[in-house]
TrEMBL record:
PANTHER family: 5-METHYLPHENAZINE-1-CARBOXYLATE 1-MONOOXYGENASE, MONOOXYGENASE
Name recorded for this polypeptide: FAD-binding domain-containing protein
Keyword tags: Monooxygenase, Oxidoreductase
Family annotation (InterPro entries): FAD-bd, FAD-dep_Monooxygenase_BioMet, FAD/NAD-bd_sf
Gene3D superfamilies: 3.30.9.30, FAD/NAD(P)-binding domain (3.50.50.60)
Entries under Pfam families matching the protein: FAD_binding_3
Domain FAD-binding: 2-374
Length: 434
């Protein structure tokens, strides 16, 4: 049995470890964070994420019961029913059904990232065993040989070097600023997009719509998203609201990390523009005013890779294809990578093509299709519907705009939203079954 090291125990790394274990690999995770292994509860970092039905299917197929993600006492995720789009003034443009409401076999989840991640990590601890999830271990460098790889780590807390780790197969799942990717390909040069995203969480005493809806409003140069991420609160008629505001900033105002605090004053004016919109009775500005901590994240863009095939090393999730945050694809594509990696491993072992065969098949399955998601997200993904509506209604009087939205919403739904959704990668299993 090949010894496989997954570098990074985030959402993609945990899903990959579970998929590889299921496929017969002897897997060990090294994760940079320093947390007691006995407490599979990661720090409450990050805010909301959406995980699409296709990825939820991968996780339930890996044996994680849906209730683990959904029950208020566990993952507390909402079963998302729809994504609705409004203009900056608050005119309804269109709505798309998602998850179960769209006929999928599993729901789309709107979740707190830390809780969703904790569910995956707990499953890794249960299935692999505590000794196979090594925390406080930051990857620093690798040496790649014909039939093995040597990985170097340091203690994250003290920076003390750890004994080198020899393995047959290494998977870099260490996120957006992947050191494994850098070790393989050099630094690259992420480009600042001219945009920042501000995010926050607040509590509201009422639900919006059916309590399971993602809402967006605005245009290309400023758009606001909000959605509920607590099933427990929804059941009590309340709304744990995860919101985000994406705006133009000529100069990177902050860092590319989930922990840079920002102030309401930085975004007050832009939020005011969306005052015609109400979510659970509150305007975007009122939601932000109820928010204790606002995080500002500068958006950088990276080109798609030409291959994920580095012999006995590969990349997965944000490390392989960092995505701009449109269309809820980050966690979804990382989990679909994990599925493809598990299938490729199983096939390669059955065919006797070994780790190199596995990496080649995985790269063939996922590199090109995820590269297309990177490109599609540069064009705002499904959120592009806000841009198109704003451009096509430019200069119209308010009443004319309202009428235009009512008349053209269906067309924009088909031409922009559905076109984007239809272009997204299919799951490996769905392709095989076809
Ligand atoms: C703290 C945090 C908060 C986030 N919050 C949000 C959010 O609110 N909304 C959202 O949409 N997305 C968020 N994301 C990103 C989102 O989780 C990913 O886009 C998506 O899940 C893809 O998963 P991934 O496994 O590729 O990357 P990630 O989920 O980012 O996981 C990467 C993992 O690798 C670890 N790691 C990094 N460097 C090293 C190293 N040198 N050695 C070992 N381990 C390393 C990290 O600690 C992390 O656990 C967040 C990511 C992080 C790390």
């Amino acid at each position: 049995m090949a010894k496989t090291v997954v570098v990074g125990g985030g959402i993609g790394g945990c899903a990959a470890a579970l998929a590889l274990h299921r496929a017969g690999a002897d897997v060990i995770i090294y994760e940079a964070w320093n947390l007691p292994q006995a407490a599979p509860e990661l720090k409450e970092l990050g805010a909301g994420i959406n995980v699409q039905a296709v990825a939820v299917s991968v996780l339930t197929d890996l044996g994680i019961p849906l209730e683990k993600f959904h029950a208020p006492s566990e993952g507390d995720a909402i079963f998302t029913s729809a994504v609705e789009y409004f203009t900056a003034e608050g005119f309804f443009i269109s709505s798309e059904k998602v998850g179960l409401a769209a006929g999928a076999s599993q729901p789309q989840l709107s979740a707190h990232r830390a809780k969703f991640h904790s569910t995956l990590l707990a499953e890794c601890l249960r299935v692999l065993g505590q000794e196979k999830v090594i925390l406080n271990s930051r990857f620093t460098q690798l040496e790649s040989f014909e039939d093995h790889v040597i990985l170097h780590f340091e203690k994250t807390t003290t920076k003390d070097p750890m004994p080198p780790v020899r393995c047959d197969f290494a998977v870099g799942a260490d996120g957006l600023k992947s050191r494994v990717c850098r070790a393989l390909l050099g630094d690259g040069a992420p480009r600042y997009t001219g945009r920042m995203i501000y995010r926050g969480l607040c509590e509201v005493e009422a639900i919006h719509a059916d309590g399971c809806t993602v809402s967006l409003c605005g245009h290309e140069n400023g758009n606001f998203i909000c959605y509920p991420i607590s099933e427990g609160m929804r059941e009590k008629g309340q709304f744990l609201c995860n919101w985000g505001l994406c705006v133009l900033r000529t100069h990177p105002g902050g860092e590319e990390k989930w922990t840079s605090e920002a102030t309401l004053e930085e975004i007050r004016e832009e939020l005011e523009e969306f005052g015609g919109n109400r979510f659970a009775g509150l305007t975007p500005l009122q939601l932000a005013e109820r928010t204790e901590k606002i995080i500002g994240w500068s958006l950088f863009d990276r080109d798609p890779l030409e291959s994920f095939d580095f012999g006995s090393v590969t990349l997965l999730g944000d490390a392989a294809h960092p995505l701009l945050p449109y269309g809820s694809q980050g966690a979804t594509q990382a989990i679909m990578d994990a599925e493809a990696l598990g299938v490729s491993y199983q096939n390669a072992m059955a065919k006797g093509t070994g780790i190199r065969g596995c990496v080649k098949e995985y790269s063939d399955l996922r590199c090109e299709v995820t590269g297309k998601v990177v490109i599609a997200n540069r064009d705002m993904g499904s959120t592009a519907v806000l841009r198109v509506a704003a451009v096509e209604t430019q200069g119209m009087a308010v009443d004319e705009k309202r009428t235009w939205c009512a008349e053209h919403g269906k067309r924009l739904h088909d031409e922009v939203i559905q076109k984007y959704r239809a272009s997204m990668p299919k799951s490996v299993r769905a392709v095989a079954e076809r």
